[in-house]
Design the sequence.
């Protein structure tokens, strides 16, 4: 890149990530994401998420705020329906029992920090944060965020 701007997602400085070339990483059955950015300094991360019809995100609690913008399809969750063109904000502490897609859905998600996934007993089963996305980019795996139900 001749602009001098890094395309490495773990850079805290300027980042330009080409979604036409960025690799897709599986987050669970029917859900994948491109890791656009993560910050070891602030804990923030940016993802471009693609959900296949019928995919579901497991119940989870936001341990920090998050924002999203739907570019294709429709994200359906307990707050309401978010079709293409809709911006959404999720506050610190929000719990979502349902998040799913009935059609192929794509959205930009900007997380300000960790998200805790809730087990069937109501306790925290695992947490996904910037380190999870760093590990994913470096060839590792992340716990499945999909709802098996």
Sequence:
């Amino acid at each position: 890149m001749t602009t001098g701007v890094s395309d490495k997602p773990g850079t805290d400085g300027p980042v330009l990530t080409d979604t036409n070339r960025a690799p897709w990483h599986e987050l669970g059955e029917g859900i994948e994401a491109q890791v656009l950015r993560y910050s070891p300094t602030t804990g923030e991360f940016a993802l471009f998420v693609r959900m296949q019809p019928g995919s579901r995100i497991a119940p989870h609690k936001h341990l920090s705020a998050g924002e999203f913008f739907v570019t294709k399809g429709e994200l359906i969750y307990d707050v309401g329906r978010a079709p293409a063109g809709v911006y959404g904000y999720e506050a610190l502490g929000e719990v979502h029992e349902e998040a799913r897609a009935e059609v192929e859905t794509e959205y930009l998600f900007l997380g300000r920090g960790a998200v805790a996934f809730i087990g069937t007993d109501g306790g925290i089963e695992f947490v996904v944060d910037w380190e999870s996305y760093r590990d994913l980019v470096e060839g590792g795996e992340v716990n499945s965020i999909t709802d098996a139900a």
Notes: The mean pLDDT is 92. Residues 130-137 form the longest helix (8 residues). The longest strand covers residues 31-38. The CA atoms of residues 30 and 55 lie 5 Å apart.
